[in-house]
From TrEMBL:
GO terms for biological process: amino acid transport. The keyword Isomerase does not apply. PANTHER family: BLR7848 PROTEIN (PTHR30483:SF38), LEUCINE-SPECIFIC-BINDING PROTEIN (PTHR30483). This is ABC transporter substrate-binding protein. Coiled coil: none annotated. Keywords: Amino-acid transport, Signal, Transport. Belongs to the leucine-binding protein family. It comes from the Bacteria. It comes from Ramlibacter tataouinensis.
Length: 375
């Protein structure tokens, strides 16, 4: 009897050892945030395919389970519940947006399953939540990178235009919080809706504000491109800044010539072909850029880069943990040091579940329809 029980246990352990590593994701592949979710999904599918072709991780294949929340927080919550209770995933990557991520947060915290978000809001990791991590730079970092450049150009009186989405309003809050630190005064503070097709009224107010020296637009999707076109139409000749929420070629396509001269913080991916050979990110950035372009015959976006890093960090943590046990993987993520990714060099800790500093951002300007590093 004891022998048969021992044999049964051994068979069960072997089966578990060979079981696939279940990676779940909830992304906005359709809807208003599809420009985020589509490249993220393509990236994860590409990299899971490559990992499995190389034998998987810990000798186990990766099973990728994906749901599309359409940019709706309620759907993200429902899909997270399905991933945890029905699919029984080992780790979750997503969501694409801050609002959707926060709708999933209580579920993963209760279940004890690590989640690596692909969204920008600082609220995801501040205050630190035991099971939540993220790969994109935070909105606060974006604001600080922009304000640093403004200060260097003696631009101290700013007109802020932010979207009423979670990302835009978080960016607005961070801009208000750190402006005085950089000697910046927000002399105009206007907002617009994510579906607005005309923002001239708000921009006219900014234009007519006494002393305004620059315009800073904080938003996602088509809104920032609408703002850029309206700025050009109104003849506003002030320095024009955007956030990392538009750090992709899609912004240039949408804004056209109105994008000329726009400055924004961005990961290194947008300048992959001009990174110097001694740049520590040259290898990871170039490898991802080539793999994505070869597979999909299109330029990768920074948003896909966030997904690339999330999966790579997850697999690195699982390897170091030697297991898919939630607590061991979570601890390994917290102990990530010197991990050179597409987005930057990650150094996480118990008090920092993002692990990036301002050096992970490059300040870029659009010149002649191309991305150029601001020297």
């Amino acid at each position: 009897m004891a022998g048969s029980l021992l044999a049964s246990f051994a068979l069960g352990a072997a089966a578990q050892g060979n079981a696939p590593i279940k990676v779940g994701s909830v992304l906005s592949v359709t809807g208003p945030a599809a420009f985020l979710g589509e490249p993220e999904l393509k990236t994860l599918q590409l990299q899971v395919e490559r990992l499995n072709a190389a034998g998987g991780v810990l000798g186990r294949k990766i099973e990728f389970i994906h749901y599309d929340d359409g940019g709706e927080a309620g759907k993200a919550n429902a899909f997270a519940k399905r991933l945890l209770e029905s699919d029984k995933v080992d780790i979750i990557l997503g969501a694409s947006t801050t609002g959707a991520t926060m709708a999933m947060a209580p579920l993963v915290e209760k279940a004890g399953v690590p989640l690596i978000s692909l969204a920008g809001g600082v609220v995801i990791v501040e205050p630190v939540k035991k099971w939540l991590f993220k790969t994109p730079h935070s909105d606060r970092m974006a604001v600080e990178k922009v304000f640093t450049d403004m200060k260097a150009r003696n631009l101290t009186k700013i007109g802020l235009l932010s979207e009423t989405s979670g990302f835009g309003q978080s960016g607005r809050k961070e801009a208000q919080a750190v402006a005085s630190k950089y000697g910046i005064e927000l002399v105009a503070d206007e907002t617009y809706g994510p579906k607005d097709s005309d923002i001239t009224a708000q921009l006219t107010k900014i234009k007519n504000t006494a002393g305004v020296q620059a315009v800073f637009v904080f938003g996602l999707g088509q809104g920032p491109a609408v703002a850029a076109k309206n700025i050009a139409q109104l003849g506003i000749k002030l320095p024009h800044y955007q956030s990392h929420g538009v750090a992709s070629d899609e912004f240039i396509k949408l804004a056209g010539t109105a994008a000329e001269g726009v400055r924004l913080p961005s990961p290194a991916l947008l300048i992959a072909n001009t990174l110097p050979a001694n740049d520590p990110q040259k290898g990871p950035v170039s490898t991802y850029y080539k793999a994505y372009k070869d597979k999909y015959k299109e330029e990768p976006s920074t948003f896909g880069g966030y997904a690339q890093d999330a999966l790579a960090l997850a697999m690195d943590a699982i390897k170091r943990a030697g297991s898919t046990d939630g607590e061991k993987v979570r601890a390994a993520l917290e102990q990530t040091k010197g991990f050179v990714g597409v987005t930057g060099v990650f150094n996480m800790s118990a008090t920092d579940h993002m692990g990036l500093d301002l050096s992970a951002f490059r300040l870029l300007e659009i010149k002649g329809g191309e991305w150029v590093t601001v020297k």
